[in-house]
Amino acid sequence: MIKIVNKVEENKWKKLLDTYDKATIYHTPEWKKTLEGTFGYKAHYFFAIDECGELVGLLPLFYVRSQITGSRICSVPFAHNCGPIGDEATVSFLAGKAIDLYKDLNADYFEVKDKVGFDNFEYQNAFSTYILELSPDLGIMWKKLDSGSARWGVKKSHKEGVSVSKTQSIEDLKEFYELNCITKKKIGVPCHPWKFFKNLFKFLDSYVSLYVARYNDKIIAGGIMEYFKKTVLYGYGAADPKYLKMQPYNAFIWKSIEDACLNGYKYYDFGRTSYDNVGLINFKKRWGTAEKKLYYSYYPKNPVSLTENRENLKYKWGTKVIQRMPMPIYKKFSDVVFGSFG
Fold first, then answer.
1. Looking at the structure, do residues 280 and 134 belong to the same domain, yes or no?
2. What percentage of the chain reaches a pLDDT higher than 70?
3. Count: domains in the chain
4. Measured between alpha carbons, how far is residue 259 from residues 20, 93, 267, 268 in Å?
5. Together in a domain, 182 and 286
6. Residue from 329, 321, 314, 325 nearest 68 by CA
7. What secondary structure, in 3-state letters, does 251-276 show?
8. Which of 270, 291, 312 marks a domain boundary?
9. Over the stretch 37-79, which tens digit does the pLDDT of each residue have?
């Protein structure tokens, strides 16, 4: 007989995550603290306990209330892959309890960032991630890169005098935040609040690091990497558009790949990409990656999402409005709305 509790000791929680290959950084207590501390979401974590008192399953859930995207139960916001973990019977039990919660809260829908194999869920494949298999032999890794683009970009950045370093400095993180604002505003989408990045480094600590690319002692680009088990996830990246010709993205990505190889990691995950973003897909493929399709599940059905249809006239209008905002207004606007899009 399985019972559900909402709290367990962190050492037992982490021991469970060590047991299952499907566990990701998004299942950790540190990710929970980051989202709670940044967006104030209400957490509803379901821990499954068997008749012997052993922790045998987990379904992390947040209740997200938004006038923009609707109210939903989500496992979990700002993850590209996260769902229930446990054996088949436990996962089925957890999903049933989550549906009960969805009904009790009168939410618009229930979203799981994974494929839930039950008839009453509708699933969709709108994204893929791109994964590079790592080797301790850097020569092998170098040969995996496309010579005319990825390798060329790394060489170009070195020739231009771009240097890369790994840092935990709060001042460097603030500069990365400013670059991220510039990058996202140019695209026409809200940017991550400063509080999100600050909490990311506060709570995830050794699970996260920042790589910065410098030119003449100025930070011109950066990328935040997240570490869990055998995988390095390239989570967030940004660059000063004035320096893109120096290929700073290639510089810090290659340096982070080198470090991942030398530190014994097995996989480098380039992160989620929507299928209409062809340029970014091609960029990720040129690093020798393999595509992994991502399936998200919805109950009772998949809602219509403005952000997943970039040809939608409302989406296009919204991007133009955002691009024209003065930066101080854009930052405040992003602080208000960003949590709706997890």
1. yes
2. 96
3. 2
4. 25, 41, 12, 11
5. yes
6. 314
7. HHHHHHHHHHHHCCCCEEEEEEEECC
8. 291
9. 999 999 999 999 999 999 999 999 999 998 888 899 999 999 9
